[in-house]
Amino acid sequence: MTITIKDPEGIAGMRIAGRLTAELLDYLAPFVKPGITTNELDRLAEAYTTQVLGAISAPLNYAPGGHDPYPKSICTSINHQVCHGIPNDKPLKKGDIINVDVTLIKDGWHGDSSRMYMVGEVSVAARRLCKLTYEAMWKGIMKVREGAYLGDIGHAIQSFSEGHGLSVVREYCGHGIGRNFHEDPQVLHYGKPGTLDQLKAGMTITIEPMLNVGRKDIKELGDGWTIVTKDHSLSAQWEHTVLVTPTGYEVLTLSAHSPAIPDFVQPAMPAVTLSVP
Ligand code: MF3
Ligand code: CO
Ligand code: CO
Q1: Rounded to an integer, what distance in angstroms lies between the CA atom of residue 12 and that of residue 5?
Q2: If you take atom 3 of ligand 1, which residue's CA is the nearest one?
Q3: What does the DSSP 8-state code read for residue 30?
Q4: Residues flanking ligand 1, CB < 6 Å
């Protein structure tokens, strides 16, 4: 799979897919409460995607090389689960943290985003992990612009995360996205500035760091999908789909109820103050 550059028509398609993806996460938010099962969230997501958004759930039956087809419409990864958790009939309980990762296809274009939700009151450590992982994603997003290196993104995420004592999962990464769910390039969440490929305007990529409270090591469960931390420490992830522009970036998976953008994120074009003579 090669890197694709989106023309204006492709960018328009990606903007729509991205916004609908974010709206699906908005829709699910109020349902994430103690007692609901992840299968119920999955059914709500599937119905909203198809019946309200007029879109298709990309994960359902997705079968990248060597994997069994993914059996559900969303991924739900709870506590020590890192990613690709499969919805089931176990109710969420107060104190859980859960990543809901949704990907939809609208008019052939993909949007991919995930958020953390806290189930009732959660521990200080869990809240801190969710907040820092969100900030780490934005540290990566802020590096995006034409000419920047993929290594700049990875380094920004890794140095911020490790600076706060969190470890970065290595085996899973962000990716190009467009007419395909997963396209080149791979977007590593660790690395060195000035290394790897340079970004070009019109590329669309995801940035989706997975951070662990404990060690970075992971393992796959027997279901062939669910990834957990080897030491069973808490893990969190956030994901946005981002367009590379000549001067910076445009986050495509934003909506009315997206969580507030961190204060340290400066707009690509600072506001101009006009003085009246
Ligand atoms: N949404 C995930 C990502 O961000 C991929 C999930 S693959 C699935 O890339 F098959 F588990 F859905
Ligand atoms: Co993704
Ligand atoms: Co995703």
Answers
A1: 13
A2: 112
A3: G
A4: 59, 62, 70, 75, 84, 101, 103, 112, 206, 208, 225, 239
CB 116, CB 82: distance < 8 Å: no
CA of residue 236 relative to chain centroid, distance: 10
Residues 243-256: tens digit of each pLDDT: 999 999 999 999 99
Q: How many CB atoms lie within 10 A of CB 152?
A: 23
Q: What count of residues does the chain have?
A: 277
CB 239 within 8 A of CB 182: no
State the DSSP code for 65.
T
Three state DSSP letters for 79-145: CCEEECCCCCCCECCCCCEEEEEEEEEECCEEEEEEEEEECCCCCHHHHHHHHHHHHHHHHHHCCCC
Residues in the 5 Å CB sphere of ion ligand 2? 112, 206
This prediction has a pTM of 0.96
Q: What is the pLDDT of residues 187-221, one digit of tens each?
A: 999 999 999 999 999 999 999 999 999 999 999 99
CATH of domain 8-271: 3.90.230.10
Q: Best mutation site among 61, 62, 177, 240 for ligand 1, i.e. most ligand atoms within 8 A of its Cβ?
A: 62
Query: What span, in angstroms and rounded, lies between the C-alpha atoms of 248 and 226?
Result: 34
β-pairing, 210-212 vs 167-168, is antiparallel
Q: What is the CA radius of gyration of the chain?
A: 18
